[in-house]
Design a protein that fits this description.
The protein is an alpha+beta fold. The protein has four helices and twelve strands; from the N terminus they run ββββαβββαββαββαβ.
Length: about 200
């Protein structure tokens, strides 16, 4: 009997509330969630909380993922809160993180300079990650920049009552990698036509 599975379902129009701005997305994502404790009635709990889920995440995205929220950037191995996740060590991602870190450093130094009555250092250009997320919304123009520069990233949002914490992924090859890693440990991969189909599988 299947006790855990990873589920792919399509992005739907109402999910556009995730983004702010007047532009359309450069490409539409697909969504992925994880279900465990699946019982004989085909229902279960949602979330990337099990050992198998952690294995698949590390297999696909690596041991450390950089999580960006409106509070800043931190390293994580889990997908359990809303935010933007950068993975891998591509030059593009390193540039994104370094430019954001550089800005944070300048802002901190400016606060110290202001306390001493000194002029702050001018910030000529804000990096892409700066305010890419405000509260729980993402700036569509900046997300498009990540898409168009082939940055390795995905978004995470909590959908309720179905799906729980889910990934919004723009790279189709990631789903192929998820399938490969899931097959190694015997976790089922399921593709649905709508998030609404999960309502019949929610305990």
């Amino acid at each position: 009997m299947i006790t855990e599975r990873i589920v792919k379902f399509p992005y739907e129009e109402w999910m556009g509330e995730v983004f702010f701005g007047d532009n359309d997305l450069a490409s539409l994502p697909y969504c992925v969630c994880y279900q465990y404790y699946v019982d004989e009635s085909d229902c279960g709990e949602f979330g990337f909380f099990t050992e198998n889920a952690s294995y698949i995440l590390s297999c696909v995205f690596g041991k450390e993922i950089s999580l960006y929220t409106s509070h800043g950037v931190k390293k994580t191995e889990r997908i359990d809160i809303n935010g933007l996740y950068l993975y891998g060590d591509s030059l593009i991602n390193n540039d994104l993180l370094n430019s954001y870190s550089g800005l944070s450093s300048i802002e901190l130094k400016n606060k110290l300079r202001e306390r001493k009555g000194m002029m702050p250092v001018a910030i000529v250009e804000k990096p892409c990650l700066y305010n890419i997320q405000v509260d729980d919304g993402f700036d569509v123009l900046k997300i498009n920049e990540l898409i168009n520069t082939n940055a390795d990233f995905f978004l995470s949002r909590f959908f309720m009552p179905e799906a729980g914490q889910s990934m919004l992924i723009f790279d189709l090859s990631v789903w192929n990698e998820i399938n490969k890693c899931a097959n190694v440990i015997g976790v089922d991969c399921m593709e649905l036509n709508s998030i609404n189909e999960l309502s019949k599988k929610n305990r």
